[in-house]
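Q: What does the assembly look like in three dimensions?
Context provided by user:
Components: two
Sequences:
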Amino acid sequence: MIKNTQVFLKETPKGKLLKSHFEIKNTSIKPPLIGEVLIEIEYISIDAANRAWMQGRTYREQILPGNLMAGYAIGKVIDSKSELFKIGDYVEGDLGWQNYAIKNEKEIEKSNIISTINLHMSVLGITGRTAYIGMKLANLKKEDTVLISAAAGAVGNVAGQIAKIHGCRVIGLTGSEIKSKWLVEELGFDGAINYKSGNLVKDLRKLCPNKVDVYFDNVGGEIFESILFGMNNHGRIICCGALSLYDQLPPKSGPRGVPGIIVTKRLSLKGFIVMDFDHQKEEAIKQLQKWINENKLIVSEDIVEGLEAAPSALIGLLNGENKGKRMVKI
Amino acid sequence: MIKNTQVFLKETPKGKLLKSHFEIKNTSIKPPLIGEVLIEIEYISIDAANRAWMQGRTYREQILPGNLMAGYAIGKVIDSKSELFKIGDYVEGDLGWQNYAIKNEKEIEKSNIISTINLHMSVLGITGRTAYIGMKLANLKKEDTVLISAAAGAVGNVAGQIAKIHGCRVIGLTGSEIKSKWLVEELGFDGAINYKSGNLVKDLRKLCPNKVDVYFDNVGGEIFESILFGMNNHGRIICCGALSLYDQLPPKSGPRGVPGIIVTKRLSLKGFIVMDFDHQKEEAIKQLQKWINENKLIVSEDIVEGLEAAPSALIGLLNGENKGKRMVKI
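A: Here is the predicted structure of the complete assembly.
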């Protein structure tokens, strides 16, 4: 029996997520049964989606009080009773917030490691691939004005850089002057707006004089509404997430202009989840790695040490404290 | 000089549209100048969009107090100073609410008359073609559950019949038991819901046990919100209009679930305006006429007599009193 540490959800948050909603327990883990593998987790992905899963059923079951905290992770097989996986293989999936995981072979997939493990959690991982697929769904055309919300986040910063590679004018929305500066000076965005400055509509008009052709939305809420009114005719909105709505009770109303503006401006909105595009996974990883090699895509990671730091890492992410991909190194 | 009668907008309605918002005047009309034609109007289309145009700028300028009431219409050229149109030609465009119109040749287009004139205002006209294009954008697949709002209206009844022709399960939403019965018994819908009965969510669940694959939305508002939550994963929403929001001040909030549900259910929303699809006009008219000839598409028209009846015809339409395409015969 191996000693394990696990993080459980203790209570469903009603408002903002707090450390007291979690409970960390020392447990032990039994050897794998037939069809199972034992995994030593190396990196756990910290995502806004972790919080959304506590709100109710989404594309997966709700995380309920008493459940092991769910989370995407990558790790090494250290014992195997499966014919599909051997010791030393890297695997990924919802391995949960713990040091070791026992998983049935059907619940995980092999990681095709072509770079460092952390890169497979960031730009080559789910968030980088989300950005890649999102920008592909946007049908980018040269000189499109592309607006990215949560632009300094794991998905947003990569999406913005991809749009730049396609020759678009790229503007990022983020929550601080420091992150705005970083987007423009380090990542090459054409402009950035600190939405907390209170001048969103004015700043949008200034930085997007030809209005917005593509809006890559990670936040929903009031920002979504403001941008809807700033869209160009025939604009495309790629709906990737609704970060602003996760760390609270579900909102009582939605954005004005839906569906009226969608009709008059002839907009397209497309929601997507990267897991539906597994058939494009290899293509995405190959292209992203190529852009990294060509110095066209800057990798930014925000690595936190130790499982015990996972709750505060998620709380901080929901408060916008990260730049780039946040993950926990076990 | 020919005597004319014209309907003007007297006042911008703040809430529900009333007859007192209009003013009917007897005027006279001068002969056409070079490049102009004189048109004797035969049918004026009555559309929910007429009311939307009073709310503000849409895809066209707002109709302001003092303006001639705008409206799509069809008529015969009775005098021409244009080389493009000769006496006897039928033409259509925004001819306005009046008996006669002087129009520049650039403001109108020739009607390719292949049936009775009224049919070119209904199923072969803008509303029929709107239904045709909308159903084309929906990418209908056999056995899709297709839900149509304002299903007894000019666009909705044709859209529903087209979806039936494609082998879909078609459910209509409408505002009375009589219209519900008409949709099922006369037009062959698989089911209909009177949304005023107060059981929308329950009725939806009963009639759409496999949820909704395609929602053709003509109404927006609370109905839009309810249906959003009843959509199937990967569902498509075709946004054609927002009838429920036209006859009032612009709403203070929009539907819940935007954009959260769009992401988790991976929905597509597509707004459109039929004028963007003029290149498919001949194709649409040909196909619609073919379906009529094959008795697959039932034509339903609601013809009101005389220009003076136009204001109350529009008010009635906004209150849901019509079945099929409402138009005014001059």
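Follow-up: Chain A has nine helices and 15 strands.
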